[in-house]
Design brief:
mainly alpha
């Protein structure tokens, strides 16, 4: 089956996806702070778009994305980053994920799914949307070890 979407990582794919991102809504979830304190260098929508570049491009890691971002004009344009040397670093991305939280990402996902469903053919019987936010992460405490655990005592 041939996809109607442009290839992953291409400028055409980013241009096709960009208008569908709810920037104003994303900025309401994590608005710029007013008053005392340091102002954020990037808006929530810019940071969300930078995160979206990881699965949409060939980088597939935030470290590689941060290294490549200054050289990729189309990626910076997609993320709304106007200056080549003013791009988020890995620490900023981590802080954004912590501040935005799971509920923020779910809220954006809900808006995107609602928009997607509005364009679906009403004659279709069902729609399946994969949501992996509740799946456990593959972390060190979840990895298999040589230790058999409680079964070891029975042997």
């Amino acid at each position: 089956m041939k996809s109607q979407l442009p290839a992953t990582g291409t400028i055409k794919l980013l241009e096709l996806i960009s208008p569908h991102i709810p920037d104003a809504f994303i900025n309401t979830i994590l608005p710029q702070t007013k008053g005392s304190g340091r102002r954020r260098a990037f808006s929530a929508a810019q940071m969300w778009r930078v995160h979206l570049l990881a699965p949409l491009t060939s980088t597939h890691s935030f470290n590689a994305l941060v290294r490549a971002l200054p050289e990729q004009r189309a990626w910076r344009r997609f993320a709304g980053l106007s200056h080549r040397h003013r791009t988020p670093d890995v620490r900023m991305l981590h802080e954004f994920r912590s501040a935005f939280g799971v509920s923020g990402f779910r809220s954006v996902n809900d808006v995107l799914v609602t928009r997607l469903l509005a364009h679906m053919n009403a004659k279709r019987k069902s729609v399946a949307v994969i949501d992996s936010t509740d799946l456990p992460a593959s972390t060190a405490d979840k990895k298999k070890t040589g230790d058999a655990g409680p079964l070891k005592e029975l042997i």
